[in-house]
Design brief:
Blueprint (H helix, E strand, L loop, with lengths): L1 E7 L2 E9 L2 H14 L4 E10 L3 H17 L4 E4 L3 H9 L6 E3 L2 H7 L10
Parallel strand pairs: 2-3, 3-4, 4-5
Antiparallel strand pairs: 1-2
Helix pairs in contact: 1-2
């Protein structure tokens, strides 16, 4: 697994490429924990490959943890059908999934609807 970082204005786009390797998950987790907590982060997963469930669960847990700690939340794009099946098999993911990068970027400016008291 490789992760390429790209800064687009206020947004940090992390493109994950290749197979998820469980031995790289801890390094990835530490980078997310230490560097991405206060950034508007979008993970592009269209070039991520599936090789087994052992590493992918830890990878998704990292995204969920970052989502909980990041005031902007985490956005994900390019999630393949196989990965969507894995996510839907358990609890709903604790991060937002979008069809493309543009929708993910636009979602940062959407204010949640508040019901009047």
């Amino acid at each position: 697994m490789e992760a390429h970082l790209e800064v687009l204005g206020d947004f940090t786009v992390i493109k994950v490429i290749g197979p998820i390797e469980s031995q790289k998950n801890e390094v990835f987790r530490e980078i997310c924990r230490n560097k991405m907590q206060s950034k508007k982060v979008i993970f592009c997963l269209e070039n991520m490959k599936f090789v087994g469930s052992s590493g992918i669960q830890i990878f998704f847990k990292t995204l969920e943890d970052l989502n909980m700690q990041n005031p902007f939340g985490v956005k994900v794009t390019g999630l393949s059908a196989d990965f969507q099946k894995l996510l839907s098999a358990g609890q709903p993911p604790q991060f937002s999934i979008f069809i493309n990068l543009q929708q993910a970027i636009e979602s940062f400016s959407v204010k949640p609807y508040l019901t009047p008291n």
